[in-house]
Amino acid sequence: MAATVIGHGITIEGEVTSDEEVLVAGTVRGKLNVDGPVTIEAGAVVEADVGATSLSVGGTVTGNVNASDRVDLLAGGRLIGDVKAARLTIADGASFKGNVDMDV
Amino acid sequence: MANVSTIGRGTVVRGSVRGDGDLDIQGRVEGSVVVEGELTIGESALIKSDVSARRVVVRGAVAGNVSADESVVLESGARVVGDLGAPQIGIRPGALLRGNVSTQVGGQGAGARPRAAAATARAARPKPVERPVAAAPKPAAKTDGLAAKTANGPRVEGNARKPPPPVVPSLKRGAKGALKRKGAR
Predict the structure, then answer these.
(1) Domains in chain B: boundaries
(2) 0.90 exceeded by the pTM?
(3) Which of A92, B25, B159, B182 has a Cα at 20 to 30 A from A73?
(4) Do residue B2 and residue A7 have CB atoms under 8 angstroms apart?
């Protein structure tokens, strides 16, 4: 289980900074800066710029995403914003609108 | 799993946290925390804001008011600077608290804030009042202290006033001993 869990029904408005794994099942508005993996579960809403080592999106993300390692957009996931990551996967059934910068 | 929310040790939140589930805070929060379930503030937690929940258990540090609809418990190791407001309040040995405590039913939540505001207002008002008062007594205390010293000291100096009584017995003791010794010798 992730060290930090923002559960269903929890809303954070502001800036979240962490150096450990973060799992979001609730709502985050503002900024999400994590020096570790971030998982955004189905049903979660993130209206924030996200920085992480790796990001897995099963919910909805509105904002720019910057991952040092990888971004996985899962089936049912929804991402509106620009992605900057070395690796990106977009699963069948995911929604995505934005630019991709894979630092080529 | 997702219903149990945790703000981990290495996580800092600047802003408001609210929700209807339980929340376990081990990290830092600078902003407001309002939860409708049970709120646990862990040993490594540092919260710089008002905290409100149905039940609150504090093991860490809180700089802000703590209010609950049911109960607030400060466990050993808790450090709270702020007011407590809940129908039931527990403070275990080893918990530190600086603030007002209110168990008035119906006074929690909405009540704690005006009280806290009143407390801060009280705290804000007396301070400037206290300063001159405190400033005035200090020299007074010093003079008192000096007076006391001079009053106590004069055992040797002020023979004219009250001091003599202590001087006499002390002399008596010495004199008696000396006399006895002299007499014995």
Answers:
(1) 4-111
(2) no
(3) B25
(4) yes
